[in-house]
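Researcher: Structure for this, please.
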Amino acid sequence: EDNSDVIALIMGRPIGILSLLDEQSVFPKSTDDNCLERFAERFSGHRRFSLARKSSEFSIVHFAGKVTYNVTGFLEKNRDTLAQDVIDLLCESRFGLLRTLFTHASGKLSSAVQDCEVKRRPSSHAPQPVQRFRSSFRRQSYQVQRKPSNPVSRKASTRKNKVTVGGQFQLSLRQLTSALLAAEPQFIRCIRPNRTKEPGCFDSNYVTHQIRQTGLLETVRIRKEGFSYRPVFAEFVHIYQGIAFPHTSKVAPNLKNCFAILNKAGLTAWHLGKSRVFLKYYHEDQLQRCLLDQQQWAIILQANWRKLLARRRLQSLRLLAAQEKREARDLCNWILGTSESTLCTLLVLNAEDEARHRAVQKQLSESLLLPTVPVVNIRKKSKKEKQSSKLTSSVLAWEDDIIKSG
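Model: Predicted structure, token format:
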């Protein structure tokens, strides 16, 4: 259901409920009943607007249902009687919390006032009332630089620049709308199973009521009837060119190639624009299923290629291990051959050394031995003869020990 008429009824300019409320707030002698009479006069024929049974109430049929409003205190609440000078004074407070609260409020009001001033006066050099007051407050002087010609004009200008609660609401709503249109919001709707928040209790009537009031059924219906997936030609060709063209080829993102891909996939109820492809919500799943076989083949090719690389690496590792084993065996053989030849050389040199040593010992023993002469006359040996015989016996004993050991 289209809600544009409700939005126009509430926020329409120059004729809307909030606009008329701001208009009635300007007049000091206006009352809430006069405001209701003004509403009834302007919107008596509107299908969304109706007067209630009580004299101070009116009703608006919103998307969620009929809502009744009481106009008592409408004008006083909309005027927001706290003066801007008081807000600026509180912004300069020494208390941090108070300064933060009114700085936030002053920021909203000053932004709205600046928007109004820019629309009314193109010149950006004219000083703002807030800035004049702040500069005068810092100088501890309460005299404004530019005074109106008379008090009546001062009140009229203040009243003209005054931003009401309805104006703030419209300003914040426009900012929210601009932020939503500039982004891609994702809404999460929370549905309560029952009113008492008890576990294991599901109230079907209450859940159905929430689904209808939140517009979930309407959203689903619009999604089914509309084109929820709208990629540009370049994105569509980049993702789905494998359906009708080879992946390695360069496909131009134009109308003809998009048409070929859609026909190859066998889709229906689609449309092509100047730069986008308009598809239903289920078309994306169908296109993904068309690419599923190619993805499976791609996985198989990747697995076989990884297997080939692993086998080549294993073969190179085996060759490297065999080469290292061969080099180690050659090293051992070289060490064994070298040790055998060295051992033979050492044995020969040892035998030669032993033969040479025996010859030397033999020559030494022969040179030390004296000839034995038989003595006829028995006489007493002298001291020299005793030493010579003792030396001879020790040499013979030493020669015998060498011969036994060798």
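Researcher: Any notable elements?
Model: DSSP finds 15 helices and five strands in the chain. The CA atoms of residues 155 and 400 lie 149 Å apart.
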